[in-house]
Amino acid sequence: MPYFVVHEHHAKQLHFDFRLEKDGVLKSWAIPKGPSMNPKDKRLAIMVEDHALEYGNFEGTIPEGHYGAGKVYIWDKGEYHTIKGSPEEGQWEFFLKGEKLKGTFVLLKLKGKETEWLLIKKKDEHGDYNFKLTLRNKK
């Protein structure tokens, strides 16, 4: 079963990198406010370049002077399966089995935007309307 990973990335701006294994790479989105288990939240997700599968296990510091310089921690990791759609279709619904993120989510590409998507938690038994994002590590 393919895996997903969410990196907590303390770069110039704190954000979370949401990555799903597909076709031999990690499809990747930067989520400025981080993922949410609250179905009422719609999180902006900026699609970035694909990453090598090996990057899924990365924790450490990207040195100053390099793209994304700063500390990177694994915030969540687990398996997932596609329910329907794909990134190529602009709508991808999937079920996550992580420690923090569980249940059905959808990534929706915004019309007329090249890289802007929304990450939305679908209503299911895993939804948490009181969800508060907690950092794994402070800068």
Describe this structure in words.
It is a single chain. This protein has 139 residues and is mainly β. The protein has one domain. Helix content is 0%, strand content 55%. It has no helices and 9 strands. It has strands at residues 3-10, 14-22, 25-31, 42-52, 60-62, 70-86, 91-98, 102-109, 116-121. The chain has an 8-stranded antiparallel beta barrel. Strand 6 (70-86) and strand 7 (91-98) form a beta hairpin. The model has no long low-confidence stretch (mean pLDDT 95).
Chart the SSEs and their pairings.
Elements: E1 3-10, E2 14-22, E3 25-31, E4 42-52, E5 60-62, E6 70-86, E7 91-98, E8 102-109, E9 116-121
Antiparallel strand pairs: 1-2, 1-6, 2-3, 3-4, 4-9, 5-6, 6-7, 7-8, 8-9
At a glance:
The protein has one domain (3-121). It has no helices and nine strands.
Query: Element order, helices and strands?
Result: EEEEEEEEE
Largest sheet: 8 strands, antiparallel, barrel
Task: Give the integer mean of the pLDDT values.
Answer: 95
Query: Using DSSP, what is the number of strands?
Result: 9
Number of domains: 1
Question: Which stretches are poorly predicted, pLDDT < 50 over at least 5 residues?
Answer: none
Query: Helix/strand/pairing class, anyone?
Result: mainly beta
Defining traits:
about 140 residues; globular; mainly beta
